[in-house]
Amino acid sequence: MNRTDSYLDYAAGAPLLPAARDAYLAADVPGNPSALHRAGRRARETAEAAREQIAQALGAQPAEVILTSGGTEADGLAIQGLYRARQAGPTARPLVLVSAVEHHAVLDNAQLTGGQVVTIPAGPDGMADLTFVERHLATQADQTALISLMAANNETGALQPVQDLVALAAAAGVPVHCDAVQLVGKAPFSFGVAGLAAATVSAHKLGGPVGVGALLAGRGAAIKPVIGGGGQERGVRSGTIDARGAAGFAAALVAATANTTAEAARLEALLAPLDALVAGHPDLSLNTPLGRHLPGLRNIALAGARGEALVYLLDQQGIAVSTGSACTAGLPQASHVLLAMGQTDEQARSAIRVSLGWATTAADVAALVAALPAAVAAAQRAAAVPPPGQGAGVDR
Ligand code: PLP
């Protein structure tokens, strides 16, 4: 990618913050944090200093920070580890409640528990339906191992009613895990205040290195390990602690959480020209629930063309956006999030996600706004051309 390119895919991965790069390189000294010699002790000090910074930035205690290889591992450890711990004792608790709009890191790990997955439906605005949870807990709380609800959706940016869910679950004695990967760094987040059993954070979404993250786990939350080994990280996450990665993660987190209110206002102001374009375009509309959304993110529905066609056309002009939904073997899939919101299969394939972050400028958004109308028209023309052998007048 050229320097002049417009990178608008922060929800997939943010560029490394200079502070994170500096901290990573400064921590680049030999030594396994578990080793007894001086080099090992230095590495341990680096990791523990990072843990303290991470804890402070997230309103947690250092002992509540379990360092992982990223968001996916933290989600897996939370869901499977909480599930296993909740099976100890005389009561069987086979039920795992997850919202329909969770990231696959939550959905797939819920399946991998071997328990019975109960899906919390979402409304057309992408919000999880808490009346469903309320009804469920009224009769099945004692069979429920855990509930997982994300803080902000990675495709639409919809903010979820996590605090209300925690209140419901606490009254029923059921632990709640929250995937806060997209929210942290974009809006205030305090683990201590939230009352969650566990929460997931990932460094590379907020300007830290790829391959580092954390599971925040309250000291009262029992979690069983999923992978065995050296017993690091409270005995629940074995594997050599990545002191360099932790240092880079901590520096990114401190920078990203320093002033989320001002940064959110900056990102939303940058998006004003895009919002105006979408509002005035007959074939574009928003899947993002404005007013209850992640700052700096828009999911744009497109009539008459596939999201990936628009992504490719914009990419040719040096503008990086995404469809927001997953690919399987390189083939774009209909978004499970948009399907859960009641959209058709065609609609769930016809959206793009634009996501901004720390290095985004007005010029990046201006490039998208200038290119979008022609790219939409080109994607629609391409969609209107029938595949070879299927056109009008062709005998089959
Ligand atoms: N959870 C959410 C909501 C995400 O958006 C992502 C990344 O796309 C993940 C989890 C996985 O995080 P990681 O890439 O650090 O494994």
Description:
The chain has 396 residues and is an alpha/beta fold. The chain has 2 domains: 6-13 and 259-383, Aspartate Aminotransferase, domain 1; 18-256, Type I PLP-dependent aspartate aminotransferase-like (Major domain) (Aspartate Aminotransferase, domain 2), CATH 3.40.640. The chain is 38% helix and 14% strand. The protein is built from 13 helices and 14 strands. Strands 2-8-7-6-5-3-4 form a 7-stranded mixed β-sheet, sandwiched between helices. A 3-stranded antiparallel β-sheet has the order 9-10-14. Strand 12 (327-328) and strand 13 (331-332) form a beta hairpin. It is globular. It starts with 5 loop residues before the first strand and ends in a 12-residue tail after the last helix. Residues 391-396 have low confidence and may be disordered. Pyridoxal-5'-phosphate binds next to helix 3. Pyridoxal-5'-phosphate (PLP) is lined by residues 70-72, 75, 103, 105, 150, 154, 179, 181-182, 202, 204, 213.
Features of the shown structure:
2 domains, 396 residues, disordered C terminus, 14 strands, 13 helices, Aspartate Aminotransferase, domain 1, three-stranded antiparallel β-sheet, binds pyridoxal-5'-phosphate, alpha/beta, 14% strand, Aspartate Aminotransferase, domain 2, 38% helix
Distance between the termini: 44 Å
Whole-number radius of gyration? 22 Å
Count all strands and give the number.
Answer: 14
Q: Taking all residues together, what is the mean pLDDT?
A: 94
Note the run of SSEs as H and E: EHHEHEHEHEHEHEEHHHEEHEEEHEH
Number of helices: 13
Query: Residue ranges: pLDDT <50 for 5 or more in a row?
Result: 391-396
How would you write the strand order of the largest sheet? 2-8-7-6-5-3-4
Oligomeric category: single chain
**What hetero molecules are bound to the protein chains?**
pyridoxal-5'-phosphate
CATH architecture of the largest domain: 3-Layer(aba) Sandwich
User: Could you give a short account of the major beta sheet?
Assistant: 7 strands, mixed
Helical proportion, percent range: 25-40%
